[in-house]
Amino acid sequence: MNKRKLLLVSNSTLHGSGYLDHCQNHICSFFTRDVKRVLFVPYALHDRDAYAKTAREKFRTLGYELDSIHEASDPVTAVRNAEAIFIGGGNTFRLLKCLYDNDLVTEIRRRVLEDGVPYMGSSAGTNVATISINTTNDMPIVFPPSFSAIGLVPFNINPHYLDHDPSSRHMGETREQRITQFHEEAETPRVLGLREGSLLLVEGNNVKLLGTTKARLFTR
Amino acid sequence: MNKRKLLLVSNSTLHGSGYLDHCQNHICSFFTRDVKRVLFVPYALHDRDAYAKTAREKFRTLGYELDSIHEASDPVTAVRNAEAIFIGGGNTFRLLKCLYDNDLVTEIRRRVLEDGVPYMGSSAGTNVATISINTTNDMPIVFPPSFSAIGLVPFNINPHYLDHDPSSRHMGETREQRITQFHEEAETPRVLGLREGSLLLVEGNNVKLLGTTKARLFTR
């Protein structure tokens, strides 16, 4: 797994700023000047055309061309030829189901772990980079064939991690309680609660926490 | 479906009060004096003994004995013999998986719709009473064989429904956005956003909204 090169972002948009603004310097350091074109996966949102347009415009301002996989005649071939991959946020269940429906889970894993293709994920795109989507916050709007994900790192992530607000009168479970429930089940991996504004840079076996808000690690 | 008799509660505990306190008068009107014993399903929480103890103590103060299905030698027989059923809250995925694992989904449906056994659900227990768990808020900590649920009503419910807080700086999807994402998918049913403090009384084809906080209906 030494070729692995990942940038896993908690959230695409930070309150008060534009799409990917808060992490744009990290994106430019991550996709070095060798990368000209990034393959974008818009499956997590319903309107793929609009999503690709937003991502393409942002990436152009950073100096990269963006191809959206939903415009490719064959998605597997698009992954095989990709210089770099970016999976955007939205609904994690819809995203993972669509990755399975298009036979992309194994192909992306192979490209990233064996060929060293740089992988950037944001929110749902970060969830699917981990062992499983068992720690997503999203609503299960569709039924994927499995919760197992691409497995680029040996732990799970909870993006948009939210600390408990002691003034809240809402009685739904806190994020901490939900992750604790996950750890009540057998054989569950560690979970990194990645607060909005945080991101993870993985190079080989080195993991570095970037951003300003830090993260919280939950062990079974 | 004319025998159907359901009490579907959004949340087990309202801020500032004890377990089921906010709906206890409705519970007593719902389980008439003909009911002596209620069959409790504690599958949504990990510690079933502790959960059954809490529920048993509360139901005793209301004048009902409570049998927990996890103490029965055969869960299906317990459902076949039940005078009344109460499925408590917790994690909806864990609950539904366990209902499938014990062959209870069809059996509970039959008892409620054909035999007129009164069914009370709270939170996750309300989710599994609907068409599917596609509109739960819970974390997908285990993988059930399907998201299809018991199907006692022809719509879905989102319990603990939460209105958007315009002062929030958190960038995760609002509840409204999540339900809208559900309705972007094909063939999705209506969703009733049931605020904490609200409950639904279903008798035959009549549905009545009880409680103080009202609900919000989402149509595709």
TrEMBL record, chains A, B:
It is found in: Cytoplasm. One of its GO terms (molecular function) is serine-type peptidase activity. Keywords: Cytoplasm, Dipeptidase, Hydrolase, Protease, Serine protease. Its main location: cytoplasm. It catalyses: Dipeptidase E catalyzes the hydrolysis of dipeptides Asp-|-Xaa. It does not act on peptides with N-terminal Glu, Asn or Gln, nor does it cleave isoaspartyl peptides. The keyword Transmembrane helix does not apply. GO terms for cellular component: cytoplasm. Its EC number is 3.4.13.21. PANTHER family: ALPHA-ASPARTYL DIPEPTIDASE (PTHR20842:SF0), PROTEASE S51 ALPHA-ASPARTYL DIPEPTIDASE (PTHR20842). Belongs to the peptidase S51 family. Hydrolyzes dipeptides containing N-terminal aspartate residues. This is dipeptidase E.
